[in-house]
Every structure is written in C-alpha cells, then in structure tokens.
Amino acid sequence: QVQLVESGGGSVQAGGSLRLSCAASGSMFSIEGMGWYRQAPGKQREMVARIIIGRSTNYADPVKGRFTISRDNAKNTLYLQMDSLKPEDTAVYYCNADRTLYGTRIDYWGQGTQVTVSS
Fold it and tell me: Distance (Å, rounded) from C-alpha 99 to C-alpha 67?
C-alpha cells in the first residue's frame, strides 16, 4: 500500500503562485509514476503533470510553461510549483502514484487539496 498526503493548497489571485506538496509513504519500491491530477466542479478528473520515474515528465497543455513538477527522492515528496495561476486552474488537486501488478495498473490517491484562483 501507498499513502499520499497533499498540502499547500489555498486561495490566490490570478497571476499568483502556489506550491503543492505530496508526502508519500508505504511500499514505494515498485512505483512507476507519480503525478498531479485535478478535478473542477462538474468536470472529470484530468492529469496535470506526471513523472514517469527514471524516464520522462509530461504536462497537460493548459499548464505547460506555468507549472513545474518535481520529486525529492530522499524525502519521498512530490511537488507541483504553480505560477501565473488562472481562474480556470481552480480545482481540487490530487496526488497520484501508480504501479503495474500482473499487467494491471494500480493507482493510489491522496485526499486532495483545494486550489482557488480568483480574478
């Protein structure tokens, strides 16, 4: 099992910045990817940024150039630096970790942290 605990959400005006953190614990040895997803009211959850460990980093088009995902291996912590925030970035942000077991992807989720951007 993997436990994920997010922190760092809050309210900010458009153009501002926030940094989200995700502390991971548990069986991290076979985790293949870690990332941030978000879900706005009435919308489906969507990928924001994801690290495929040891391989690549991917960003959703709406956040490219504004958000930066990073990982501190020693602290088992994932970060999302969000700059130039826009009202459309308002959502609950979830930390995610995934592994493949017997050919099936298994996802672990944090409880979510609210980000609200006002115009």
Answer: 24
